[in-house]
């Protein structure tokens, strides 16, 4: 690639540079389903593939409300003991690393 900068009637062109390994790195969350959302008490998480996954529930301040390590492709999270509101489900494994918003009504 090269860059040409133009200002008024003048322009300058950089030397050519080779770009490799360019792409979009995904966090793996597109394969994970979290439902129902909004929920009343129980959230189901499916589509997990790593042998060890940490699933955490965080409040809007980032405080961990609950956390557990699972080794299955599907799990449930109870929100029975938290007040109604918005929470984040954080999923961490070797194949998934991301957050999803969930609403408890």
Structural notes for this entry:
This protein is mainly beta and 105 residues long. The chain contains no helices and 9 strands. The protein has a 4-stranded antiparallel beta sheet, with no helix packed on it. Strands 3-4-7 form a 3-stranded antiparallel beta sheet, with no helix packed on it.
Question: Secondary structure elements and their pairing?
Answer:
Elements (H helix, E strand, L loop, with lengths): L3 E4 L2 E4 L19 E3 L6 E5 L6 E6 L5 E7 L3 E5 L6 E8 L4 E8 L1
- The residue fraction in helices comes out at under 10%
Global mean pLDDT: 91
- How many β-strand runs? 9
Report the β-strand fraction as a percent range: over 45%
Instruction: Report on the biggest sheet.
Output: 4 strands, antiparallel
General form: elongated
The parts where pLDDT drops under 50 for at least 5 residues are none
How would you classify the helix and strand content by structural class? Answer: mainly beta
What strand line-up does the widest sheet have? Answer: 6-5-8-9
H/E topology pattern: EEEEEEEEE
Radius of gyration, CA atoms, in whole angstroms: 21 Å
Count of DSSP H/I helices: 0
Alpha-carbon distance between the two ends: 52 Å
